[in-house]
Specification:
Cofactor: FAD
Bound molecules: flavin-adenine dinucleotide
GO molecular function, one term: prenylcysteine oxidase activity
Protein name: PCYXL protein
Low-confidence stretches: none
Number of domains: 2
Domain Prenylcysteine lyase: 3-209
Number of helices: 3
Organism: Neodrepanis coruscans (wattled asity)
Distance between the termini: 41 Å
Order of helices and strands: EEEEEEEHEEEHH
Oligomer: single chain
Number of strands: 10
Strand content: 25-35%
Length: 220
């Protein structure tokens, strides 16, 4: 339309394969083989996956009795904490533990007493083995383990991926390589929406405004 590029997107869903044409496309998942399986065809220069690595992290959800002695409280009744955080200590096999509550709680819900069996979320770099679980818990009923490619390893990327991949093809998730959080991605999403809008309407003086920092600082 009006000499603008049209993007043909092929996709596969539970209902089968499909394809459609779009004026504008925003990619909102990391273009990295460990996180998504996008391919870009017939772009010149070609668009490839961006280098870098993700930090794997393991979440274990354990229903059991905390071994409060390990944390310096021989009497479990006196254990006062619902979160246990750690500092970067070599050979420590876990990063953090939280006593977690159901998402939907009733009016009568009370957090478990420290000596009762409770549900704990344990974050670690590696899956916990039996010995490590028996160190953190006196005994347990169940363990559910999920391994995530959690956040980018900031030392692994030499430069940031581009935001504009092609005329009206944008890439949001590159900002995770600056800092990986919901707030960052929300800010990036607003910025990409403004950028796409201004580019579409050729409002080019609104993009990369030289005096923007001054305007922002003095707007009140
Ligand atoms: C274990 C973990 C803990 C975290 N903890 C926090 C925290 O406490 N606070 C915080 O602020 N941030 C946290 N983050 C980071 C936060 O989750 C991300 O920054 C945020 O989810 C990014 O949002 P997004 O919408 O860009 O991407 P995502 O939430 O990753 O969504 C991308 C979506 O794209 C989908 N997708 C992938 N490939 C395709 C494809 N080919 N076609 C269609 N869809 C596709 C994916 O299934 C996914 O649903 C955490 C991340 C992880 C993994």
């Amino acid at each position: 339309s009006e000499g603008r590029a049209l993007y043909q997107v092929h996709y596969e869903s539970s209902e089968g394969q499909g394809s459609a044409f779009y004026d504008m496309v925003v990619v909102t998942t990391p273009l990295h083989p460990s996180r998504s399986n996008f391919t870009f065809e017939n772009f010149e220069p070609p668009i490839a996956d961006f280098p870098g690595a993700f930090q794997p992290s393991v979440t274990s959800v354990v229903h059991g009795y905390l071994n409060s002695s390990y944390f310096g409280f021989p009497d479990p009744k006196l254990f006062p904490f619902t979160s246990i955080l750690t500092t970067d200590t070599p050979d420590l096999f876990f990063n953090a533990m939280d006593n977690i509550c159901p998402v939907n709680i009733s009016a009568t819900f009370r957090r478990k007493q420290p000596q009762e069996a409770a549900v704990w979320r344990v974050l670690s770099q590696q899956p916990l083995d039996k010995h490590q679980l028996k160190t953190l818990f006196r005994s347990y009923y169940s363990v559910q383990v999920t391994e995530w490619q959690t956040y980018p390893r900031y030392d692994a990327a030499k430069s940031l991926p581009p935001i504009v991949l092609h005329e009206n093809l944008f890439y949001l998730s590159g900002v995770e390589w600056v800092a990986s959080s919901m707030e960052m991605i929300a800010v990036a999403a607003k910025n990409v929406a403004l950028l796409a809008y201004n580019r579409w309407h050729q409002d080019l003086e609104k993009i990369d405004q030289k005096d923007l920092m001054h305007k922002v600082k003095t707007e009140l």
